[in-house]
Design a protein that fits this description.
Strand content: 15-25%
Number of domains: 2
Order of helices and strands: EHEHEEEHHEHEEEHHHHEHHEHEHEHH
Strand order of the largest sheet: 3-4-5-6-9-10
CATH architecture of the largest domain: Alpha-Beta Complex
Number of helices: 15
Low-confidence stretches: 1-6, 384-401
CATH topology of the largest domain: Glycerate kinase, domain 2
Distance between the termini: 29 Å
Shape: elongated
């Protein structure tokens, strides 16, 4: 810490899934800070890494929310939203095509599709977007992005010239793809695939094998989805040539059930780190100006955090500017050395205040305010190194992550 008199604090957390949005986390931490040090200069900038909560974080950062009724993963109508500022739109796949949009939570590994995501992109283009940041994560489908592309004007046909139904289960019957009807506005638009997933489309590390089981696919369904995706690459190669094969091998093409492949191969998307592109569009560097401390966090600080998730991205960006970073989290599963190497000066898990995970989730708001108060106390006393808390138990299904 620069000095005991440090007064500027940037609060940039991700969501605590299941208990608090990123904006709520920031507000509660700020309330605790103000209780102890009312004269602190605080800047709240909730963040996200492209997955669930990305639109909320963008809106909290100054984007406007645009709501639209779109097609859900299995043809159900859902209310979704994208965020817009100027000519930049943030489209969150989970808003339209995520697991949370499945009726009654019933998994549909063969039938779920991404048509609604394409509808959101089309709405963003209609609102004047020239850059579309496509945040992926929490996907319910494994359709290679065909649903998204169909909503944007592509046609995927069987041997009789009939359009295929949505979902990855029908892709084995794909005989031809007509891309001539793609929305003409895409030619003047830039699409950014915001994802830290580096899986290819096919194979043992591909979309079906790795993520299919999370969407309810058993071994036979995984095999069927894999075969369908391979056929999709073969058919698209007829019109795109080697570019389709290259896109299928590209890191990130397996993201979110292969929507990464559709975006890379057909829309000419560029893949960027989810947190890095979101920090850029949210103006993180400008918000960091003259900050003496950055506070970030998420539901569970663990090994996954270190591989491109929001808190690690915040810590990396702040460390480049020499600004120390503290993390708040529901649970902590990193050793002190791992925290230090990732750029965190300290970590404050809620379980240090409330060991019971269920009560910690229910009482997250009050606990975050207590953590904020402790952070203010530590800040005013030059942030002692003893504030780094030893690792706690590993996250489980009841955690905040």
């Amino acid at each position: 810490m620069n000095s005991p008199g440090a007064r500027r604090v940037l609060i940039a957390p991700d969501k605590f899934k299941g208990s608090a949005t990123a904006a709520e986390v920031a507000e509660h931490v700020a309330a605790g800070l103000r209780r102890v040090a009312p004269d602190l200069e605080l800047r709240l900038l909730p963040v996200a890494d492209g997955g669930e909560g990305t639109v909320d974080a963008a809106v909290a950062g100054g984007f406007s929310r645009h709501r639209s009724a779109v097609t859900g993963p299995v043809g159900n109508r859902v209310q979704a939203a994208f965020a817009l500022r100027g000519e930049t739109a943030i489209v969150e796949m989970a808003e339209a095509s995520g697991l949370r949009q499945l009726p009654d939570g019933r998994l549909a590994p063969l039938d779920a599709g991404t048509f609604g995501t394409g509808e959101l992109m089309r709405a963003a283009l209609g609102a004047g977007a020239k850059t579309i940041v496509l945040g992926v994560g929490g996907s319910a489908s494994t359709d290679g992005g065909t649903g998204m592309l169909a909503a944007l004007g592509a046609r995927f046909l069987d041997a009789d010239g009939r359009e295929l139904p949505g979902g990855g289960g029908s892709l084995a019957r794909l005989a031809s793809a007509d891309l001539s009807g793609l929305d003409s506005r895409l030619a003047a638009a830039r699409v950014v695939l915001a994802s830290d997933v580096d899986n290819p489309l096919l194979g043992e590390h591909g979309a079906a094998a790795v993520y299919g089981p999370q969407k309810g696919a058993g071994p036979q369904e995984v095999a069927a989805l894999e075969a369908g995706l391979a056929n999709l690459v073969k058919v698209l190669s007829q019109s795109l040539g080697e570019a389709a094969q290259q896109a299928a091998r590209a890191p990130g093409s397996g993201a979110a059930g292969g929507i990464g492949f559709g975006a890379l191969a057909v829309l000419g998307a560029t893949r960027e780190s989810g947190i890095e592109v979101l920090l850029d569009v949210l103006g993180f560097d400008a918000a960091l100006e003259n900050a003496s401390l950055v506070i970030t966090g998420e539901g569970c600080l663990d090994r996954q955090t270190l591989h491109g998730k929001a808190p690690a991205g915040v810590a990396h960006a702040a460390r480049r500017r020499g600004v120390p970073v503290a993390a708040v989290c529901g649970r902590l599963d990193l050793a002190a050395q791992q925290l230090a190497e990732a750029g965190f000066a300290a970590a404050y898990p809620l379980t240090a205040l409330e060991p019971d995970p269920a009560r910690s989730i229910v009482n997250a708001a009050q606990l975050l305010e207590r953590v904020g108060a402790q952070l203010a106390t530590d800040l005013l006393s030059d942030f002692p190194s003893s504030s780094t808390v030893p690792p706690e138990t590993r996250c489980d299904g009841r955690s905040h992550s």
